[in-house]
Design brief:
- The structure holds two protein chains of two kinds.
- Chain A has two domains: 20-247, Immunoglobulin-like (Sandwich); 250-289, no CATH class.
- Chain A is α+β, with helices and mostly antiparallel strands.
- The longest helix of chain A is centred in the C-terminal third of the chain and has 22 residues, at 264-285.
- In chain A, helix 5 (251-262) packs across helix 6 (264-285).
- Chain A is built from six helices and 14 strands.
- The radius of gyration of chain A is 24 Å and the shape is globular.
- In chain A, the strands form three sheets. Chain A has a six-stranded mixed beta sheet. In chain A, strands 1-3-12-11 form a four-stranded antiparallel beta sheet, with helices on one face. A four-stranded antiparallel beta sheet of chain A has the order 5-6-8-9, with helices on one face.
- Chain A has helices spanning 20-33, 36-40, 149-155, 180-191, 251-262, 264-285; strands at 56-61, 65-68, 75-84, 96-102, 105-116, 119-132, 135-139, 166-168, 171-173, 195-198, 202-206, 209-216, 223-233, 236-249.
- The termini of chain A are far apart.
- In chain A, strand 8 and strand 9 (171-173) form a beta hairpin.
- By secondary structure, chain B is mostly helical.
- Chain B has one domain (2-307).
- Chain B contains ten helices and five strands; from the N terminus they run ββαααααββαααααβ.
- In chain B, strand 3 and strand 4 (171-174) form a beta hairpin.
- The longest helix of chain B has 33 residues, at 110-142.
- The mean pLDDT of chain B is 80.
- Classes of the chains: A alpha+beta, B mainly alpha.
- Strand 5 of chain A pairs antiparallel with strand 5 of chain B, so a sheet runs across the interface.
């Protein structure tokens, strides 16, 4: 992560690419601009409907691209967010933030083993369709404390609340959260480090400014990752914004991967010849007679 | 120091990989087997996806078997004729194995079939080799001469029609069992992701009665041809060959193979067979244990490739 001195305030563009400079400028401007009088205003928080678009959320990421070079062994992307108050918000208003990071979708099969004839055999399976290959749920406190379960489910806030579409017979449906296949799927993905739930990862560095580190493991799949940030206040959804970043191979790694995909014939022949060359060289080097 | 594998898409420690390459290379040089039956499980244990592990190991095996074949070629120990006849069956077997691979993966029972095949084959081959070599060693220890091979005393399957003389191997047998052996090796090899050397060497020694050193040399030639074609086929159809992974394994493997070959040449054939038998049996028992012991996680998650 690189920090530079704040420059002129640029218009916030949360949906476009992340701009660390713009964010820092916004951050600085906001901290300085909060008038002291506002702080003494009576709290007249109006119960905002869950779908309100009132209030602004400015989001930025420490990098737009996680690059995979030969020394890559995992990385982290830092998410910054600034909640701009609306007229109705008091200064004492507290916010809750749930950031959900989803990697490219992939279909998975979860198998259940059972003992048959003394051996552990796959006996049953469920297909998980278009499940995120990476899923991180970061929040400032357990999402269950932020709002009612119905709202959390609707907003997919919290790992248990994320929809994972399963194929059940001919139907496609998500099942109850304590479904053993669903739980096993989450457990296996969590043990691989690809599914993460951290209820203390979102940190408020000022009342309206938060940051969170998104852990990218070494085995993170390549593709576009979306960061969906939901701000809750008074047990209701206040703002919903998202940004995205890429995980991509660069340089040599990219060259190898594209060669393998686009010039499969050449790649195969070159690899085979390379193997023979290594064998031949070894034979010459270690020749005894 | 970690290195990122571009096709396997994960970082691994380069020294772990090198050490694995050297260790497996040593074994493969010593016994004249490809070492795939050791390397593939090791890579999967490291976290490399099985399709990438199977495909990338073939580069390592191609390199070390080429190096070994050159050695034996120079010493004129390779029976090229026998190799070609085996290959004719092996190619058909490989194709059949690839088809079976896809069918079994569909039903989610591939792991089980592979495990059972490993246990059955490694267990049988390992036990047979140990029993036979212990007998040979006991005979030697007692000072009894080994029973001479009588030319006419062939088992029934070698007396089948289409006989052919393999001069290098000093055998005159029907090609039906030879092609069948080639087919089985190709089938099991592509199904289990191994070169099949650990099956071929004993099969040549015990079934076809080819001299041990010629068996080893011819098996290396066969491994070389099947592995080179495996590299190209996997690259074209699955795109799962990781050249970086392969290169690290190859460098370690060829170095290890040289030392292994030297260790193997200085050893008596009976001892060599006894050790290989022990190793094969140990791997078989290990696979059996994994299949019988209660796994820590009763569920497994795989990527649904048919949905891609």
């Amino acid at each position: 992560m690189t920090r530079s001195a704040p420059r002129r305030r640029s218009p916030p563009g949360p949906r476009r690419g992340p701009q660390p400079l713009a964010l820092l400028a916004v951050l600085a401007a906001l901290l300085l601009a909060v008038p002291p009088a506002r702080a003494q205003q009576a709290e007249t928080a109006i119960e905002a409907p869950a779908t309100t678009s009132a209030g602004h959320l400015v989001l930025s990421l420490s990098k737009a691209r996680v690059t995979i070079a030969s020394s890559f062994s995992g990385d982290s992307v830092v998410l910054f967010g600034v909640i701009e108050p609306t007229a109705g918000d008091g200064a004492a208003q507290t916010y809750d933030v749930v950031a959900t990071v989803r990697g490219p979708n992939e279909s998975f099969v979860t198998w259940r083993k059972e003992r048959r004839l003394g051996m552990w055999v796959n006996v049953d399976s469920r297909s998980f369709l278009a499940a995120p290959s990476y899923l991180a749920v970061l929040s400032n406190r357990p999402p269950a404390l932020m709002a009612d379960l119905g709202l959390l489910r609707r907003e997919q806030a919290g790992l248990a609340q994320n929809r994972l579409l399963q194929r059940v017979g001919a139907d496609y449906a998500d099942v109850v959260p304590d479904d053993p296949f669903r739980q096993a799927f989450l457990r296996v993905k969590q043990s691989q480090g690809l599914y993460v739930e951290r209820t203390d990862a979102v940190e408020f560095i000022a009342p309206r400014v938060f940051q969170a580190a998104i852990p990218i493991p070494g085995i993170a799949p390549i593709g576009t990752y979306t960061v969906d940030v939901k701000v809750f206040a008074d047990r209701a959804l206040l703002i919903d914004r998202s940004v995205s970043f890429e995980v991509a191979k660069i340089d040599f790694e990219q060259a190898v991967a594209t060669a393998a995909q686009q010039h499969a014939w050449l790649y195969g022949l070159a690899t085979a010849l390379g193997a023979l060359a290594v064998g031949f060289i070894a034979n010459l080097v270690f020749r005894r007679d | 120091m970690t290195i990122y594998l571009p096709i396997a898409e994960l970082p691994v420690n380069i020294f772990t990989l090198l050490a694995m390459g050297i260790a497996v290379g040593f074994v493969s040089g010593m016994f004249g087997v490809g070492g795939g039956f050791l390397m593939t499980p090791l890579l999967i244990f490291l976290g490399v996806p099985p399709p990438v592990a199977v495909a990338s190991v073939s580069t390592h095996m191609a390199a070390s078997s080429f190096s070994g074949t050159l050695n034996y070629m120079r010493r004129k120990l390779v029976d090229v004729q026998l190799g070609l006849v085996l290959l004719s069956g092996g190619m058909v077997g490989t194709l059949a194995g690839v088809l079976a691979f896809h069918v079994l993966r569909r039903f989610g029972q591939l792991d089980l079939v592979i495990a059972v095949a490993y246990v059955a084959l490694l267990g049988t081959v390992g036990t047979l080799m140990i029993v036979e070599s212990v007998r040979a060693l006991l005979r030697q220890w007692r000072g009894v001469k080994a029973p001479l091979r009588r030319p006419g005393a062939h088992p029934w399957f070698l007396r089948m029609p289409f006989k052919m003389r393999f001069r290098q191997s000093r055998i005159y047998v029907s090609i039906i069992p030879v092609v069948t052996i080639g087919f089985s090796i190709g089938f099991l090899g592509s199904l289990m992701g191994v070169g099949g050397g650990f099956l071929l060497v004993p099969a040549l020694i015990y079934l076809l009665r080819v001299p041990t050193i010629t068996s080893v040399a011819t098996s290396l030639l066969l491994t070389l041809v099947t592995m080179v074609s495996a590299i190209v086929l996997h690259s074209i159809f699955n795109q799962t060959v990781d050249a970086v992974l392969g290169l690290v394994l190859m460098v370690g493997g060829t170095i290890g193979a040289q030392f292994g070959a030297r260790a193997g040449q200085s050893m008596k054939a009976e001892n060599l067979r006894f050790l290989l038998g022990l190793l094969v049996l140990a791997v078989g028992l290990r696979v059996a244990y994994d299949q019988i012991a209660r796994p820590a996680e009763l569920y497994a998650v795989t990527i649904d490739e048919s949905a891609r």
